[in-house]
Amino acid sequence: MLDIVFVVLFASYFIVAAKVEQWNTISILGFKSYTPEGFLRAPKVYMLVSAFLFSILFVFSFFTENIPLYISLFLVVIGWGVVQIVGRKQAFNNYREVHADLYASGGQFLDAPYNQEELAELAVESRITDKELHAKLIKFRKWGM
Predict the structure, then answer these.
(1) Rounded to an integer, what distance in angstroms lies between the CA atom of residue 79 and that of residue 73?
(2) How far is the C-alpha of 2 from the C-alpha of 24, rounded, in Å?
(3) Which of 1, 60, 89, 106 has a CA that sits 20 to 30 A from residue 140's CA?
(4) Number of domains present in the structure of the chain
(5) For residue 48, what are the domain limits?
C-alpha cells in the first residue's frame, strides 16, 4: 500500500515541481506573462508546495514495503535532478517559441512594425541554444532579476 502512495507522490512531485521550475525559469528570463496569475502573485507558495511534496516523498521513501530503501532514495534524488532539467528545458523551449512567433509576426500587430535590427535580434533569440540560455539564466539570477 505504501508503495502505491510513494509512486503517486513521486508522480505528483514530478508534475508539480517541473511546472514550478518552468514558470520560475521563464519568469526570470523575462516572460512573466507565460506564468499563471497565482504564480505571479506568490511564487514562493508554489516553491514551498514543491519542496513540501519533495519532503513528503523523501519521508515515504523510508516506509516503502516492496521497494528497497536504496532504490527509493535513488529515485528521489534522480527525480529531483530530472525535474530541474525538464522544467528548464520546457522554459527554454517556450522562450524560443515566443521569439520565433514574434519574428514570424514581424510586429504587424504593433503601431510600428519591427525594424531590420529588431527582426535580426528576434531571429537570433529564436535559435539560441540551451547552453546559452542557461548562461543567461545564471547571469539574471546573479543580478537578482
Answers:
(1) 10
(2) 32
(3) 106
(4) 1
(5) 2-143
